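Hey team,

Filing this mostly as a record. A colleague (T.K.) asked me to run one chain through the structure pipeline before their review meeting, and I want the input and output archived in the tracker in case anyone asks later how it was produced. No errors, nothing strange. Just documentation.

Input sequence:
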Amino acid sequence: MSLKVYALGLVALVALGGCRESRRVHLVEHVEAAPSGTPYIPPQCYTKTQDETGRVHNPCFTCHADSAPPNYVADGSLQLAYEFAPPSRVNPWTNLFVDRTAAVAEISDEWITNYVRQDNYRTVARGTAVGWRPDIAFQFDDDGFDRAADGQPTGWRAYAYYPLPGSFWPTNGSFGDALIRLPAAFREHRDGRFDRGVYTVNLAILEALIARHDVPIAPSDEGALGQDLDGDGTLGEARVVRYRWKPGGGGMAWVGRAAVLQGEGSVHLAAGLFPEGTEFAHSLRYLDVENGRVRMAPRMKELRYMVKRRWMTYGEFEQQAAAEASEKTQSPHKTRAMVADGEGGIGSGAGWRLQGFIEDAGGALRTQTVEEHAFCIGCHSGIGVTDDSVISFGRKLPAASFQRGWFHPTQRGLEGLHEPTRADGRGEYTSYLEWNGAGDELRANDEVLTRFFDGNGQLEPAMAARASSDVSVLLLPSSARALRLDKAYRVIVHEQSFARGRDATVAPALHVHRALPEGDPPTGIAEARLDRRRTARAGK
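Output structure:
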């Protein structure tokens, strides 16, 4: 079957309301019929930020924020207007407007509970000729390291992170995890032997570079590692990786064989960037209810993967951002070429390749189509909240947390975890509730509305205080809601209608635009919230 190039129109790489058309693409796919719609614009972008009373809701600040170089997007102003080009003004996510009440009622609690407890990862299609062949064992030790059946390390390490406010909260339908794997050189001693201590320190160095602050570590022999980790000028015992990277290089270095390659110029290091070859995996799962408690289910809705194929410098990122801004002004309807295929995934345009698996009608994981892959780009390129196209790693739990934040959700729940803190000192989750006036972008989570807001739509101080000290009070739904959302998503799986939307909604969305008027209509938000949350200082 021949390759074909399809113009999908002007598409936005942004994740919430008040969105901009920043990148345009053509896609190459192994199919005969052209994809339809604009899959790069997430459904949340079409949120009505003003309700029928004139009240303004701002869920947009979570993604559109001030960015730190080498992310030169700095798109906080997009909170103020819907900047959509003509081809994308009609909302393609028509699943949002479907009433699934009757279909959900036909599915019993017993059936859906049995369904979500079936592990479909073990039968994921691994026969793809190109791209990633899933190789995670999902057997984690007390430091979050994954081990194969024979006890050998797979290189993957799980880390816990604060879910981005809104759709990513479990109360809105899905539990997610995150794993990272650095290339072999980062896991090895200078002589090429696997060295878990070297790998642990390199991951701590990376955490410091992305979070841009010091990271406590277990006592480490700097002499054996050959690096002054704590920056005290001597090679002694380090208990912290001191963040001291300087623009243009210097101040920090990798350890082990990665340090050798860095010295040769074949491996790089810079603040805000992951080294070439970095891999991420992320499973999105159903909600399970066990003894009245909501937890991550064994069954995966999706399995997502990213790999960094190419190193880009600060200068290249800055030039790219400037070129895209100029193109938008001079040629607002021009499209940009991007190559993708159903097996190998899709390129981000920023050095990464993304690949995903999703359930087929029977519940087995299959490779995604090109249009389904395109959906991933909306959150992983062209928005201010990301660090080198990644959201979760910059939101990793701090070292004061359980297992220093290196654990899988199956090892510990959300109970007792403090909310993250924004750069302005405010709690991020309670600020989201206050500024959005709801627990999700669509303002469809009636449970959060009932529990956290009074009859006038104002945030209840007592409930806000509870959520601030224990995020599980907010992030976990009731057992009844968890099963209801599982059923709603299962209906979409049976239909295989992902191209029309993946949100687990039961009733039609009431606060979403079906179409936007011409021009760049204002959102009604008078002041953009620009203080980006750089690190989670609070937590247990």
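Quick notes for T.K.: Confidence is low (pLDDT under 50) at residues 1-18, 20-36, 534-540. The chain has two domains: 4-119+283-500, 184-264.
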